[in-house]
Amino acid sequence: MRLALSLALAIGLLSGSATVTSALERLNFSWPVNVGPLNPHLYTPNQMFAQSMVYEPLVRYGKDGTLEPWLAESWEVSGDGRAYTFHLRQGVTFSNGETFDAEAVVANFEAILANRERHAWLELANQIEKAEALDDHRVRLTLKDSYYPVLEELALPRPFRFVAPSQFVDGGTMDGIAAPIGTGPFVLAETRLGEHDLFRRNETYWGKAPALDEVDVKVIPDPNSRAIALQTGEIDLIYGADGPISPDSFKRFEAMDGYVTALSPPYETRTFALNTNRGPTRDIAVRKAINHAVDKDTMISAVLSGTHERADTLFEPGVPYADIGLKPYAFDPVLAERLLDEAGWTRQDGGTRSRDGEPLRIELCFTGNDAVLKSMAEIVQADLARIGIAVELVGEEESSVYARQRDGRFGMIFNTTWGKLYDPHAFLSAMRVPAHADYQAQLGLDDKAEIDGKIGKVLVTRNEEERRALYREIITRLHDAAVYLPLVYTNAMLVARPGLGKVPFGALSSEVPFEAIEPGDL
Amino acid sequence: MALFILRRLALMVPMLLGASLVIFLVLRLGPSDPALDYLRLSRLPPTPQAVEAARELLGLDRPILVQYLDWLWSALHLDFGVSYALQRPVLPDLLHYLPATLQLAGFALLLTLAISVPLGIWAARHRDGLPDNAVRVVAFLGVSMPNFWLGFLLIFLFSVELGWLPAMGKGGLSHIVMPAIAISLMSLAINARLLRASMLEVAGQRHVTYARLRGLSDRKVERSHILRNALLPIVTATGMHVGELIGGTLIIESIFGWPGVGRYAVSAVFNRDYPVVQCFTLLMVAIFVLCNLVVDIAYAYADPRIRLSGEGTR
């Protein structure tokens, strides 16, 4: 008996010690590709979620939608709106021990601006005239103009984040970095091409230390394989805004015991841009009829398994300056038919309508290998056929779709807004650039030049009232002209094993908030 | 024999040259502009200046033949350029991913041979009997089932339901079994049926009847007089299967999370990442040609008629 007891005790102790050694909390995650070299100032193949784990901004976009102090504790704006002085947080070091100070910040800004052309899509990169250190902990940015969304663009996942200057190559970052050394909560510990990327907690992190010791990001390209990996325990978490698994896989997990599933609030709006400069969509009656004829609710339940919310406006009301009470184009096929009849598009025997010999035929362009987009396009095709509009589906490879966006060879084309921190200002700003589908789609509007002028103005006005009024005018104008067919608001999907505790959503669609995960028992 | 091999190896040079020219030209016949693809993949805005700069950088402003010779010259120095999308040199990356792919394809090839030959013999021995019909069913399924679907079925059964095998990743034998089966089932099915047909054909020939008349045992007749002759078409077919298996591997890798060249190559094709596509295709051509050379040598070795007639004409 005594022997049995001591054996039991010994086993208890052993297993006790076993749990102590396994207290290393490793979260297994997956991503379709390796995270890349993690250069904070460059784009693909660097993956944004991983850049955000390692590098931090001066100001951060918080959960409640406000910009909060981060590596900068406070800031002042000069009276003319052209100079921003940032007071840096003290006691912050890069993960290799280097001090994060004004000199490091200025070196990073200079490295970014040395590659200005590459960042030209982001207006702030064009606006910054110079960055200078006032002392060890104060940095001043001087702008060319009183551009207002400075803090918004500084908070983006890239390029305005900071790598240890000792890692620069040839005095900068545009030709690469030696190693990804940032100030963030995690450090990249190991990369194996095609297999995984391993992140460890940054032990010298200035902020609240993450509860996770390690995050292992396995390379799993296929969404179905990812779903299986969660089921077989190879990964603990599925998370992402880019459809990490198909909507029906998500529904399946929702119905299964033992998994936590959640959908984030909306991040972006998925729309069709309707070309005002080409084919029948030149006619506003046709564009309005399209807006009235598509049954989005059915599309959402049939194709997206109810995982998305219906979008009725280009920007959801939560977007800054966009809550302006626009009247949605309601689903009303009868009204749609009447609009077409009144505009002279006549129909015989339920066939395709035509006017003066021009058939009401529209090309709908999309990336052909995306099954969800294809199904959405097919539903639009069927809905529009009912009111006598023939839709020709043009599914092509990404590069061809891109070429069409660029030179306006489309009737309707999938188009997504850019999401938090970009909407509305950066998305509107890009409408002035000919290479964007929005520019091409709006080209047929009589007042396109005027709209562009207003966009230029809204970005630099210092008067809040005027800014609000200008945004209202621009967004209302685009809505009334029915240049877009808003479809759904995109969101992030989350499926987790229950031991993970509560997993919050990132404030930005590109972030995975690993630092906020506090696992119970993995 | 050595001369035969040398001659065939020498023939590879014009073959690869020709292939590289065709690949280079066909890629550029597409409707899209490499300069725009470059900008899109590098996430650069396609302003007219940027397009012009990219054109110059990529040498697109020069005649296509000059571009080809330029590329060829670098390629001869083992410099296959830098991937547009990844901004990394192409060759080292390809050589990093390729071994895993070849390992999987090689294992699948072994599996194909190890299973299809006994199955074919078994089916031929029991013509129209139960074994023959069983092999027929397997062959029917094998040829008509897409390999990625089979892959998912295997994962569902052995990983999700039974929990016997890991669903993905690279490791020991347990990791390679399912993807290898998924890839090889089709080749295996074709091979088994081919061997059966070939054995039955040879079995009807006169030398087999003579062998039987000489009083040789059934086993001996089958081994020395039927099988050896019947294997020749299998050798040829195997050369063809190598291409099939590598092609299958490219798809299956992505399902089983196998760290091979598949995803790298397929996304390069979708992206029109020219340097990657050129290097990858050329490597595949080289591998395919080499495999066929091995097959031809094996053929010559197995069939004295080929070996001897070759020597006779010299």
Automatic annotation (TrEMBL), chain A:
Annotated GO biological processes are: nickel cation transport; peptide transport
Q: Residue ranges of the Solute-binding protein family domain?
A: 67-434
Signal peptide position in this chain?
1-22
The domain of life for this entry's organism is Bacteria
Q: Which UniProt keywords apply?
A: Signal
Please tell me one Gene Ontology term that the record gives under cellular component: outer membrane-bounded periplasmic space
- Places the protein is found: Periplasm
**A molecular-function term among this protein's GO annotations:** peptide transmembrane transporter activity
**Do you know which InterPro entries this protein is assigned to?**
CntA-like, Peptide/Ni-bd, SBP_5, SBP_5_dom
- Matching Pfam families: SBP_bac_5
Q: Which family does it belong to?
A: Belongs to the bacterial solute-binding protein 5 family.
Which PANTHER family has this protein been placed in?
NICKEL-BINDING PERIPLASMIC PROTEIN, PERIPLASMIC BINDING COMPONENT OF ABC TRANSPORTER
Q: What is this protein called?
A: Nickel ABC transporter, nickel/metallophore periplasmic binding protein
Provenance organism: Fulvimarina endophytica
Its gene is nikA
From TrEMBL, chain B:
Where is each ABC transmembrane type-1 domain found? 98-295
A GO term from the CC aspect: plasma membrane
Where, subcellularly, is it found?
Cell membrane
Q: Which UniProt keywords apply?
A: Cell membrane, Ion transport, Membrane, Nickel, Nickel transport, Transmembrane, Transmembrane helix, Transport
A single Pfam family it belongs to is BPD_transp_1
- InterPro entries, A to Z: BPD_transp_1_N, MetI-like, MetI-like_sf, Nickel_NikB, Opp2B
Q: Cross-referenced SUPFAM superfamilies, in alphabetical order?
A: MetI-like
Kindly give the membrane topology term recorded for this protein. Multi-pass membrane protein
Residues crossing the lipid bilayer are 104-125, 137-160, 172-190, 230-255, 275-299
Which branch of life, at top level? Bacteria
Instruction: Name one molecular function that GO assigns to this entry.
Output: nickel cation transmembrane transporter activity
User: Which NCBIfam families does UniProt cross-reference here?
Assistant: nickel_nikB, Opp2B, PRK10352.1
Family, similarity comment: Belongs to the binding-protein-dependent transport system permease family. OppBC subfamily.
List the protein's name. Answer: Nickel ABC transporter permease subunit NikB
What organism does the UniProt record list as the source?
Fulvimarina endophytica
